[in-house]
From TrEMBL:
This is GNAT family N-acetyltransferase. Gene3D superfamilies: 3.40.630.30. It holds the Pfam family Acetyltransf_3. Transmembrane segments: none annotated.
Amino acid sequence: MGSHLDVVDWPVRTERLELRRFAPDDIPRIFAYRSQRSVAEWIGGTTTDPGELAERFGDGPTAVIVEHEGRLIADLMVSVRDAYAQREVAGAATASEAELGWTFDPAYHGQGFATEAIDALFDICFDRLGLHRVVATCFTDNEPSWRLMERVGMRREAHHVKDSLHRDRGWQDSYVYALMADEWRALGP
């Protein structure tokens, strides 16, 4: 089975970045930053072995790699799914939204790369995949992530109370952010 991302003409270039599909030989570089304690604090699972990470990524049907000057600096997730719909109109909601995620190498923080990469990801989602909406979720204590969501124009839709279990911190609150295609277009270039 293919990926929704297969329809995109890769790579996608911005002023400073190149976004491309995941390849298995990306694992060592991804492992190098995902295994850092400051990164592992907020991602879905710790990584202690490159082989385990390779299994989790599988063939990378939702993974997009971000490179700067030929160096892998981040991995992004675009998980396309059906939006909720009543049965009579369910076909129109098929593959109409995506959950987004991102993990950036801390060595590249503070240089505007995350904002640039997520802007390009919106272009992929809305213009190339024709999605209606994108969403992203994070722990409320992961301030850099929700600040990025706000910086790129996403709107906070929900503050869930103690709905997410963190491996070290116990039950934590989470935020849900979203952006609709028409909102993104209204933001302009």
